[in-house]
Amino acid sequence: MPELSGTCLCGDVTVEATPRIHEMGTCHCAVCRKWSAGPFMTFDCGDNVVVKVQNSFGVYKSSQWAERVFCKICGTSVAWRLQQGGEYHLSAQLFEETANYPLGLQVFIDEKPDNYNFAEKTKTMTGEEVFAMFSSPEES
After folding, report:
1. 36-52 pLDDT, tens per residue?
2. Per the confidence metrics, is the pTM higher than 0.85?
3. Which CATH architecture has domain 4-134?
4. Among the four residues 48, 53, 88, 127, which has the most C-beta atoms within 10 Å?
């Protein structure tokens, strides 16, 4: 997988990362849609991420297990990440060289509004399936 390099709108936050798989994912949950003004398109990069910040890096704890990363200067949505382990799902729109990454997964499909659809046929997961995937064996 090639390493991707990108920035927020103002350039204060620079990200270098290698996606785990050669595809984009999208989240339709209510929190992502409110945070990004639409479905949140991401690259699953795990912990293989280097974030360089000049001045302003914001983190918002959005649930008991996840947080949102953003630029405090320009407001760009940078990433969704797990609080434990730092697994990053970076905004696909940070990067310019992403045209050849197909859409492969849609999560929280059960929360997707009826007023839009993607043309691509993808794997889909409900919110319950996503929570089950991220829960530890002790929590199941």
Report:
1. 999 999 999 999 999 99
2. yes
3. Beta Complex (2.170)
4. 88
